[in-house]
Predict the structure.
Amino acid sequence: MVFAGLSHLFWARKEFQAQVPDWTGKVMDKDAVVVASGVVEAAFGVALVALPRERGRIGALLAAFFVAVFPGNIEQYTKRRDGFGLDTDRKRLVRLFFQPVLVAWAFWSTRD
């Protein structure tokens, strides 16, 4: 999670912007959304290491985070936005089916 969060902040900012829904522009620009989500992801990673007794709760919050960002993946598919090598409709569609895997992973990897 720390690596993913840092990628939002540095080398993959442009790629992540392809996943930010257009409606967020009413609240903040896409780059700000990418930076904020990167900070949150990095914080989840640090929390998992620093707060081992809270792993179950952090895992549940992480799963909720993965659910919360799913609309961005849908928008990337529906608006046909390239990013992270997802340069065809088929690749973007297949990517949608991996989000539930991330949600399950968050629960599974942090279970007591």
Notes: The mean pLDDT is 95. The chain has one domain: 2-109. The helical segments are 2-9, 13-17, 30-50, 55-68, 70-78, 89-96, 99-109. Residues 77 and 90 are 9 Å apart (CA to CA).
